[in-house]
Design goal:
It is a single chain. Helix content is 0%, strand content 47%. The chain is mainly β and 346 residues long. Strands 22, 23, 24, 25 and 26 form a five-stranded antiparallel beta sheet that branches. Strand 14 (160-164) and strand 15 form a beta hairpin.
């Protein structure tokens, strides 16, 4: 379906500070220690990495198509860890030993890099990813998970949002993005991203659309209980909600509980390029949309402040079938007003 067909060269980005970051994608993991001025390759393999998740400058994890890798030395050495069955679609660690994940068969769709429209099983590890066990009593059809600490977390499951405050022993539904402002959106996929001390941001995606639009919306909750619709690209959406920066579901980088960068793509836009908006005040204010000129589609974003951030994406033209693509890393130091291409895949 348009820009998401084929296999993007880069899928994931994470920065733990303004200097240290990692980017991963089709067969490699690259890193920078100087804010992206220089990049070095840490790993080349036949795996397509969909996610990197670092808890510090030394300890992190990378989710591939069929294996989970871990590092304790900043990525100089990566080792294979355990995998449930089915394998992990995504993970979120709160310490070098404690983490949660969604075990599921993933689907390359029109939304975030790792998609689980049909849902999977919530799993947990307490030994740094060496072994994983299902979380008893968790909501069925898990799609995404994030935790702020070892007790407080949120789960997207079966098109709804659930919260736990006891490490996953009990869950309570806190939002149903499919029913907002008197309309039924038919949302199928909920991607959650936590922001300390108590916030959560949600990309709600219908995973189905036509005429160059896949209806989706962003939601914010600074307290983890009360949700605001931040922006939307919905058929017949309410006029008082800002229009999303793209007609295809975006990627969100939570800067804190009240601030996030939202990046998306519109196939019909000329020139074809990804675009970004900055949501502030808990989603009550959304900045004007700003284009990323050299990047056609965005697959990941990592902002460490409202001004400083990185976006990874694809510079290849749209089209059907699988084709080689050029992955880009774009950086901004002024909130998206201007961008610099820091890295291109070989």
């Amino acid at each position: 379906m348009g820009a998401r067909d084929g296999d993007p060269a880069l899928d994931a980005v994470q920065f733990v500070s303004a200097s240290h970051g990692w980017v991963a994608g089709a067969g490699w993991i690259v890193t920078t220690a100087d804010g992206g001025r220089t990049w070095s390759t840490q790993l080349q393999t036949d795996q397509h990495f969909r996610q990197v998740d670092f808890v510090s400058a030394t300890t992190g994890f990378a989710v591939g198509g069929t294996e989970l890798l871990g590092t304790t030395d900043g990525g100089r050495c990566w080792v294979r860890l355990g995998e449930p069955n089915p394998p992990l679609a995504s993970v979120h660690f709160v310490s070098p030993t404690t983490g949660w994940g969604v075990a599921a068969t993933t689907n390359r769709g029109t939304g975030p890099a790792t998609m689980v429209p049909g849902g999977g099983t919530l799993v947990r590890t307490t030994d740094g990813g060496r072994s994983w066990t299902p979380v008893s009593g968790a909501p069925a059809n898990a799609q995404s998970v994030c935790f702020i600490d070892a007790t407080d977390g949120w789960l997207g499951a079966d098109g709804r949002i659930f919260a736990t405050h006891d490490g996953g022993s009990r869950w309570q539904q806190v939002a149903d993005p499919s029913r907002v402002a008197g309309r039924t959106t038919g949302a199928d996929l909920e991607t959650v991203q936590c922001a300390a001390p108590s916030g959560v941001w949600v990309v709600s995606d219908t995973d189905n659309g036509a005429a160059g639009t896949v209806p989706w919306a962003t939601f914010a909750s600074p307290d983890g209980r009360h949700f605001r619709e931040v922006d939307q690209a919905m058929y017949g959406g309410p006029s008082n909600v800002p229009v999303a920066p793209g007609s295809y579901p975006g990627v969100t980088s939570a800067i804190d509980a009240r601030t996030a960068a939202i990046v998306a793509f519109t196939p019909a836009r000329e020139p074809q390029s990804a675009a970004m908006a900055l949501a502030t005040a808990g989603g009550a204010r959304v900045s004007p949309t700003r284009l990323l000129p050299a990047m056609q589609d965005a697959t990941g974003a990592a902002f460490v402040s409202p001004t400083t951030g990185w976006v990874v994406g694809d510079a290849a033209p749209s089209g059907s079938g699988r084709r080689a693509s050029t992955g880009l890393v774009a950086a901004t130091s002024n909130g998206g007003r201007t961008w610099t291409i820091q890295y291109r895949t070989p």
